[in-house]
Design a protein that fits this description.
The chain has ten helices and no strands. The protein has two domains: about 5-90, Orthogonal Bundle (Cytochrome Bc1 Complex, Chain D, domain 2); about 105-190, Cytochrome Bc1 Complex, Chain D, domain 2 (Orthogonal Bundle), CATH 1.10.760. The model is unreliable at about 1-5 (pLDDT under 50). The protein is globular, with a radius of gyration of 16 Å. About 40% of the residues are buried. By secondary structure, the chain is mostly helical.
Length: about 190
């Protein structure tokens, strides 16, 4: 549905303001708290931009970065512009973590497969059919922040955000911060050259 040629002309122009935070290749910038978005499923990017624009995400006072994204999403003129940006981003080469996070990979694999893999894919590749994003390629601080947002009711509370509400429920099932670190260590090993 989202071919490279159909979105290249307008998508790259509409993506230009995003470069300041997300990078010219969508690789993200942890120093700016901007996640890697390159190669993420277009429908997921589109849904998140609409969530920001429609105030389903980034409305809690503690979500400063979400509030910044609300402004950016509002700057996109209409749904067609959001779809073009999403299509462009989806066609960018996927990111890989330069320095994987440390952790217990055995525990991380077990926890990930038991709690995350059914939705996000066995190798954190994402699952568009379940509206679950790709996690491989995201930096540890972003994953931790979003996980805490889901767990603490900062994200995933809007009744119209069904996938977010599902994630908010799941975030409450992880016992310790150490377990999250181990899951992130596992996620960071995914999508890497063997």
């Amino acid at each position: 549905m989202y071919g490279a040629s159909s979105f290249a002309a307008d998508g790259d122009k509409l993506f230009a303001p995003c470069v300041a935070c997300h990078g010219d290749k969508g690789q993200g910038n942890a120093a700016l708290n901007a996640p890697a978005i390159a190669g993420q499923d277009a429908a997921y990017i589109e849904r998140q931009l609409l969530n920001f624009r429609n105030r389903r995400r980034g409305v809690q006072e503690s979500d400063v970065f979400g509030a910044q994204m609300q402004a950016a999403a509002t700057a996109l003129a209409d749904d067609a512009a959001i779809a073009k940006v999403a299509g462009f981003v989806a066609n960018l080469p996927k990111t890989v973590n330069a320095a994987p996070a440390p952790g217990n990979l055995h525990n991380g694999n077990n926890l990930y497969q038991g709690k995350c893999g059914a939705c996000h894919g066995g190798a954190a590749e994402g699952n568009p059919a379940l509206k679950a994003p790709r996690l491989a390629g995201l930096d540890a601080s972003y994953i931790k922040r979003q996980f805490a947002y889901f767990r603490d009711g900062v994200r995933g509370t809007d009744p119209k955000d069904t996938p977010g509400r599902q994630m908010a429920m799941m975030a409450k099932t992880l016992a310790t911060e150490r377990d999250l670190d181990d899951i992130i260590a596992f996620i960071h090993r995914q999508g890497r050259p063997k």
